[in-house]
Amino acid sequence: MIGYDWKADKFFYFLFFITASFNYFTLFGMMLVACTPSALLANILITFALPLWNLFAGFLIVRPAIPIWWRWYYWANPVSWTIYGAVASQFGENGGLLSVPGGSPVMVKEFLKDNLGIRHDFLGYVVLVHFAYIIAFFFVFGYSIKFFNFQKR
């Protein structure tokens, strides 16, 4: 419905990115609960983390438009990697023409590269970063459950 091609690799990329995002959101919540002395404090912390993730994800403000001193947060943001991966996997190699208002028609992949900073050949690293976030959140959660004990009196 939104212009995705009916190809197996694009379908599985999309399925991977959605599943990976569900996993790291769940593991991030579990990690916060395990790292804090109460679920209330974890809830307060996540209310600050999630709006920042959404703001710097590259959806509302694209990466080239983010000020240079805040771009590090774009690259540290797991949601930005998911959006990058979904867009790059679905449209990154599209050679069709896109009509830009006030300009001449340009290929979709060139528009993504020039205006949004999204390249299809960077997709392997995006998949690795998703695995890294999931593994990191999982191990921090496991370490916190094992070694942090907030039950001491």
TrEMBL record:
<dbReference type="GO" id="GO:0140359">
    <property type="term" value="F:ABC-type transporter activity"/>
</dbReference>
<dbReference type="Pfam" id="PF01061">
    <property type="entry name" value="ABC2_membrane"/>
</dbReference>
<feature type="transmembrane region" description="Helical">
    <location>
        <begin position="122"/>
        <end position="145"/>
    </location>
</feature>
<feature type="transmembrane region" description="Helical">
    <location>
        <begin position="74"/>
        <end position="92"/>
    </location>
</feature>
<keyword id="KW-0813">Transport</keyword>
<feature type="domain" description="ABC-2 type transporter transmembrane">
    <location>
        <begin position="1"/>
        <end position="91"/>
    </location>
</feature>
<keyword id="KW-1133">Transmembrane helix</keyword>
<dbReference type="InterPro" id="IPR013525">
    <property type="entry name" value="ABC2_TM"/>
</dbReference>
<feature type="transmembrane region" description="Helical">
    <location>
        <begin position="40"/>
        <end position="62"/>
    </location>
</feature>
<dbReference type="GO" id="GO:0005886">
    <property type="term" value="C:plasma membrane"/>
</dbReference>
<keyword id="KW-0812">Transmembrane</keyword>
<protein>
    <recommendedName>
        <fullName>ABC-2 type transporter transmembrane domain-containing protein</fullName>
    </recommendedName>
</protein>
<keyword id="KW-0472">Membrane</keyword>
<feature type="transmembrane region" description="Helical">
    <location>
        <begin position="12"/>
        <end position="34"/>
    </location>
</feature>
